[in-house]
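Protein folding task:
====================
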Amino acid sequence: MNNKWNSFLVAIFVAFTGLPVVLGFGYAALYSIGLVGILNQGWNFQHWIQTLTSTEAIAALGFSLYVATATIIIAIGSALFVTLNMRKEIQRKWFSTILYFPLAIPAVVAAFFTFQLLSNAGLFSRIIFYSGWIKSVQEFPDIINDRFGVGIIATHIMMSLPFFTIVFSNLFEAEKLEELQRVARTLGATSAQADLKIAVPILLRRAFPAIVLYFFFVFGSYEIPLLLGRQFPQMISVLMIRKLQRFNLLDIPTAYTLAILYLIIAGTVILLLFRKRKLAYDV
């Protein structure tokens, strides 16, 4: 009886959480190939051809890939450095508070915080101005709404660095890497060799699922690039919503096509990478 009741509850949970997502993507897929929609005229791949040959869409995909890659590389490198070189500080209460605090900040708040710090009229520009390094705040380099997405990347790093530091620290303890490093040093390895050849490969391998999923989280992020990005290039999620909410009905199929394209890219990469890997940590 309990097993049937548990199965029923699981089915209800899946129906309320998974079914709307499946229906939403199903509707988007049908819209992108012309089977539904006011202006569509039946089965065709016209919207896909227009999207895949659009400079705006290609630039959005490339810019999203660039932002996600830069964020992950810098955040993971920094988190590994903190985990391997600040073990004692991580275990202290004040340092743990600093680590966990950014995880409680919403993306919109983090974007506004970055804007207040790094914009031409922000805190850093005024400090540098009053220090005499620049003659006016307008001489401060454009970090917000710039073509390289520095403000977007900086905000994502601010949010992802604590997350990966916590993940790596927990894995460091679970894998007993300190003992393995001690054995390596006893056998003649240097501290750098123990870190680079033992700790780093194990941490990256065990955190691989979290790294991949966070990559696609940044790839498809919306609030931060909306507030800190520019009109061109835009990240794929911002371009998608802009196309969907415009008054031109001809742009709506492009938005749905971009949504399906993102799903195909993310789903394909995740399936290929995780096909021979376990999604759960073997603690």
